[in-house]
Amino acid sequence: GLDLGLSVQLAQFRARRARLVGQEESHLLRTIVREGDDGAADDKILLADTDLTDEAKARVLDAYIDYVDLNHARELVEKEPVIVKRKQSLLVTRSKLPVSTALSFDPPPTVSPHLAHDSMRANVSRLSNDTKGDATVVGFRFAFHDLIDPTDGLPSNADIEMGTFTFRVWDRTNRVQLEDFAVFGVGNYQPLDPYSMKTSWRVRAGVNRVDDLRCEDCDAVFFKGGSGVSVNLWNKGPLGYFLVEGAVESSPRFETERLTTSVGPTLGLRAQVKPWISVLLEGRYLRNINLPVFEDRQLDAHLRLYPKSQQVAWAFDASAAFKRASREVSVGLVHYF
User: Fold this and answer.
1) Taking the CA of residue 297 as centre, how many other CA atoms within 13 Å lie in the half-sphere pointing to its CB?
2) Which positions ≥6 away from 155 have C-beta within 8 Å?
3) Which residues pair with 336 in a beta bridge?
4) pLDDT tens, 247-281?
5) Is 5 helix (H, G, I), strand (E, B) or coil?
6) Cβ 62 vs Cβ 93: under 8 Å
7) Per-residue DSSP letters for 69-85?
8) What is the pTM of this model?
């Protein structure tokens, strides 16, 4: 309902912006900047502007009305008095311009989960680690999607995963080892532009494997999260994001403090190289601020290839991780069901 309407409204707003010429977009930005905390903008200033023709004023006002619809959608639906009054004032101002600005635009692709890949995902791969040897990796996810799953029918700049876990079976010992279990992981990477300055963020909680100065190959409960900014590197191009993240981890096997805290920056890049190829690069730096104090650095690269079809069932997956004390690569298959 509301999400689909906002998608259409965003496409309409972008079409309005594309029609602005000369200084009209700067007039639109100035009108938005004049918008006060109570949602009231002095559109009368725009109406009285002698530098613009009536046609130009109409184009700017139409774009601004779409901006209000887009950024105050919930307040308008809930009939919040200040915003409703603002919208009515804009429509009255627009009616004083006897100019018609017919608009045609391509509606956005339908964003609906039933058009996307199946929500559950299983994966199996072979991994080689330069210090521990080779292993078979088995993983499972109960629901939803990540940043490099096929995006048809789903928000392209968000990841939502529930109940994901990964096991490793090492060739040398035949030991089955839990590598990672996440109760949930949610991220929202909204690209910045002059009309939307929303913060990007992500959070994740579960159990992961720790192998550093705190302990050697032990399981720890964790909660990780952070916020920052995201940008499209060019129009509809790769998504880049920068986050400042923190992590709280706890294990009875930690040799010093049982509860540790770390913080540091994360830099990532997600690119849709082809309609059937997604790449994710992410570098992280964390500094543990409890005893023992240490630094951790990791660079991950992830590649996923899948057929461009209405319902993706299989994908090829490859990844590499460059960690503080080891390097590893893996290749395998992913099944959506």
Assistant:
1) 2
2) 111
3) 121
4) 999 999 998 899 999 999 999 999 988 878 999 99
5) helix
6) no
7) HHHTHHHHHTT-HHHHH
8) 0.83
